[in-house]
Amino acid sequence: MEAQLVGGTPTGVADAVVGDLGTRAKTCAAAAAAHALEVDAQARFPAETFAAAKTQRLLGIMVPKALGGEGASIADVADVCYQLGQACSSSGMIYAMHQVKVACLVRHMGTNASLQHLLRRLTAEQLLLASSTTEGQGGGNVRSSEAPVEQLGNGRIGLERKASVISYGAYADGVVTTARRAADASGSDQVLVALLKCDYTLTKLQGWNALGMRGTCSEGYMLKANAPADQVLPEPYEAIHARTMVPSAHLLWGSVWTGIAASAVGRAQAFIRNAMRHSNGQLPPGAPQFTKAMSTLRTLRGMLSTSLRRYQQVMDDPQAMAALDFQTMITLTKVEASELAASTVMSAMRACGLAGYRNDGDYTLGRHLRDVLSSPIMINNDRILANLATPALMSAIPATLRE
Ligand SMILES: Cc1cc2nc3c(=O)[nH]c(=O)nc-3n(C[C@H](O)[C@H](O)[C@H](O)COP(=O)(O)OP(=O)(O)OC[C@H]3O[C@@H](n4cnc5c(N)ncnc54)[C@H](O)[C@@H]3O)c2cc1C
User: Fold this and answer.
1) Each residue of 110-147: pLDDT tens digit?
2) Within 13 A of 343's CA, how many CA atoms are on the CB side?
3) Pocket test for ligand 1, best of 95, 101, 134 (most atoms within 8 A of CB)
4) Full set of structural domains in the chain with CATH
């Protein structure tokens, strides 16, 4: 979908490879890696990563050039997520969640001048956006909202939402949230609302002391907003969900999990090499598990690249994106990426044995395992598989390998 810019040339999500993005991502990943242990141990926001991301101007890369961004492609952003995921899982996931929200704004703001202004500010000031979809007792049912948008008059809206999880809510410069369109709308008749810090207050309802992804600081809040009415995205959330939210979330989260898996495999490789150096070149007993980890990492990377390529091919074609086959493929990308990443990290840990299991030493993999275990529950795989049961029954089973 092309973004028509008010007072600018029409542009969209460009596919151009951004000059030195790789180097800038590397610099940011180095800052993330240097503080990853501390971020995990203290369950604190990875401030150093995001200071570096701002210095490297990584937060607005997906914004169109006409709005001050770089028009980076989803593949460019996925690579940054992969690099950050290798360095510090929480940093990678925060970056991914921010970019999912940016993608929704870029692709669905239409000619809305307020939203275009917001994106200009995001790029100029390197603003960090958080995400609110989980609400009340609704769990991972993103396609249903409880709290309605209230028209306050004077061109303003109100929203009071029991947001059970908003990662890095306390550190973000804005929140992009789902909401029921109006008090008389059904739960699935939703809109997406972009809020800046001056538009809302957060009252903490719940802390975040979790097994992994501890640095995401995914606390629960009562979100109370009073914002300009034109910060409601013009398209219904239903369309945004299918065309952008699900594909970008699944691809970018998947890239972070793949980064975690790659880092774990790297550690297992170092362990095996070290063990061989100390035993006259003899492979340690855990070596087959390392081979298995390499194999699932390869499958994971291949699956993710195929899904990324497929999305880039159809992302500007609403009809192709609505096709059952594409929606099933992109939805299952999340399930497959999370299962493969978790099993890769598990194999890497088995390859390292006790050295991987213990929490100290060069080959410890406890943090990787705890972090990657968030992947099947971040929109629960069981929920996704149950929702896909009917479409899967309607899908044709390919008769030849070429299909
Ligand atoms: C690290 C992390 C960061 C997060 N950050 C954010 C954030 O910034 N903003 C935000 O809004 N949310 C965030 N979330 C929440 C996330 O988006 C999901 O809402 C949440 O993970 C779902 O939690 P749940 O398993 O309790 O809920 P549910 O999906 O409701 O699942 C509860 C249980 O019911 C089962 N279940 C549910 N539906 C079905 C079904 N149809 N068939 C079979 N079983 C089913 C599941 O398997 C599970 O055991 C985050 C989650 C994590 C882990």
Assistant:
1) 999 999 999 999 999 999 999 999 998 777 789 999 99
2) 15
3) 134
4) 21-128 (1.10.540.10), 132-231 (2.40.110.10), 237-394 (1.20.140.10)
